[in-house]
Write a structure and sequence with these properties.
This protein has 462 residues and is an alpha/beta fold. Helix content is 51%, strand content 16%. The strands form 2 sheets. Strands 3-4-5-2-1-6-11-8-12-7 form a 10-stranded mixed sheet, with helices on both faces. The protein is globular. Its EC number is 2.4.-.-.
């Protein structure tokens, strides 16, 4: 177990160095190909924004208006009403003057039946398309219906409650246009909108979350998006492009079979299947990541909803690894087989189990008086300081590059939360992971559940 811990730390040091190098490289390269040049190009790629919506009546109008304000010369917005039981569709029809239209719908990916397509009579909303379908009991089914309805070669999958920066489409589409090797997916940083100043679907000012669970999740997001995923992007080893914000090559997604509607981690499973397809067809490919925060989303603020989400994530991880187990150490799949999947198995799946075994070992050692307290203290302190260093470096790099918070007081509170995370928050995530594994192996059913949102309709403080 000690050797495993040392290997874990050394690998994360390697990833940290690689992340820093990748961020510096990204910032330097931006100067060589200006985004304004791409916008004026005759070869700019069209992008379809696909946003599934289920019972989003509280925010739907504001969110659609926010998406309509994005700056990109060639894009469409596809809102998929996934059989909502509230007034989501009615609000859209009234606000945007929608009428049902004849639409040539090709079901390239199988989904639940589509009841109809709606467009606005007002030319101001010409970019907007509403897809009304029977509920498929998963975001994946709704996203597939949106992909089937899209007209452009790239699609950006997002959650309808997400708030995107105005230049999000351009920044995500840029890697697809500037790389000689085919880019099949691209992701970017996601941040937490809880406690931010938001009015009518637009982000006015970023604030550090006031509630405990969102505060700890903010730490996770900064660390994982800025450090972990930048390193894997540099290695061309990304296995996860977040379902909240990810742009994809539509042709490859369709050929790979689209989102799997039975998956509990549909974003990770799709990327794994896309990688498999590219290896099977012997095509070179890249999956890129941008070290910029382009999306803000509301996260669970209560223990109950947080645990439900993380249990599902854990089940999704095991499910994906199990489904694609034949890729492990298979020479046909290159670095995916020998680096990416072994990493996720060893350092994502096994770590909660090893930590739990370690805790049990400590308890029994304490009971039978077999603990070397000095050795335990030294090892624990080293691991804690390593974790704290990685987290603080992530926070500071993010602040230096992007000035994400309203003031330095919020930044210091965030650093203070980092010191508490291993003792307060981390045990809860370990519990959720173990419970998710247990549910998976026991084949216990788990629905997606409802993410109760507070919404953004209330006026913001100025």
């Amino acid at each position: 177990m000690i050797h495993f811990s040392i290997g874990y730390i050394l690998f994360y040091i390697f990833l940290s160095v690689l992340s820093y190098w990748a961020i510096v490289k990204h910032l330097k390269y931006q100067k060589y190909l200006e985004e304004e040049v791409l916008i004026r190009s005759n070869h700019i790629l069209g992008v379809s924004i696909v946003a599934p919506a289920f019972n989003e009546g509280v925010n739907i109008v504001y969110n659609v208006k926010s998406l309509l304000s994005l700056t990109y010369p060639k894009y469409e917005i596809i809102i998929v009403n996934d059989g909502s039981s509230d007034d989501t569709l009615e609000k859209l029809i009234v606000e945007f003057d929608l009428v049902k239209i004849d639409f040539y719908y090709q079901e390239k990916i199988a989904t639940q039946p589509v009841r109809g397509h709606y467009k606005s009579k007002n030319p101001v909303y010409s970019k907007l398309l509403i897809v009304d379908k029977i509920n498929g009991k998963s975001k994946a089914d709704a996203a597939n219906a949106g992909i089937n309805s899209s007209q452009y070669p790239l699609f950006l999958c997002t959650d309808v409650d997400c708030i995107l920066k105005r230049d999000t489409i351009l920044k995500l589409a840029k890697p697809f246009m500037e790389n000689e090797t085919r880019v099949i997916a691209c992701g970017a940083g996601i941040r937490i909108s809880n406690s931010c100043d938001i009015k009518e679907g637009f982000l006015f000012k970023v604030h550090y979350p006031k509630e405990w669970y969102p505060r700890f999740q903010e730490l996770e997001y900064v660390r994982s998006f800025l450090f972990g995923r930048m390193a894997w992007s540099q290695l061309n080893g990304l296995l996860l492009v977040s379902g909240g914000l990810g742009m994809f090559d539509k042709d490859i997604v369709i050929k790979a079979g689209g989102y799997w509607h039975q998956s509990l981690g549909e974003d990770m499973e799709l990327v794994t299947r896309m990688r498999k397809y590219m290896h099977d067809t012997k095509e070179k490919y890249l999956i890129k990541y941008i070290p910029e925060s382009l999306c803000w989303t509301e996260v669970p603020s209560t223990r109950k909803i947080f645990l439900r989400q993380r249990i599902r994530w854990a089940r999704g991880l095991v499910q994906t690894l199990y489904l694609h187990r034949k890729m492990f150490l298979n020479p046909k799949y290159g670095r995916t087989a020998f680096l990416v999947l072994p990493f996720f198995f060893s350092f994502e799946f096994l770590v909660p189990i090893i930590e739990f075994i370690g805790i049990l070992t400590l308890i029994f050692s304490f009971i039978f008086g077999m603990i070397d307290y000095q050795y335990l203290l030294i090892i624990s302190l080293l691991v804690y300081l390593f974790y704290l260093s990685i987290t603080i470096i992530s926070i500071l790099i993010d602040e230096i590059l992007y000035k994400s918070y309203a003031n330095y007081k919020e930044l210091m509170v965030l650093i203070g939360m980092a010191a508490l995370e291993p003792f307060v928050y981390h045990p809860i995530t370990i519990y959720a992971s173990l419970k998710g594994y247990w549910f998976f192996f026991r084949r216990k059913e788990q629905n997606w559940g409802v993410m109760v949102r507070k919404g953004y309709e209330s006026p913001t403080k100025k």
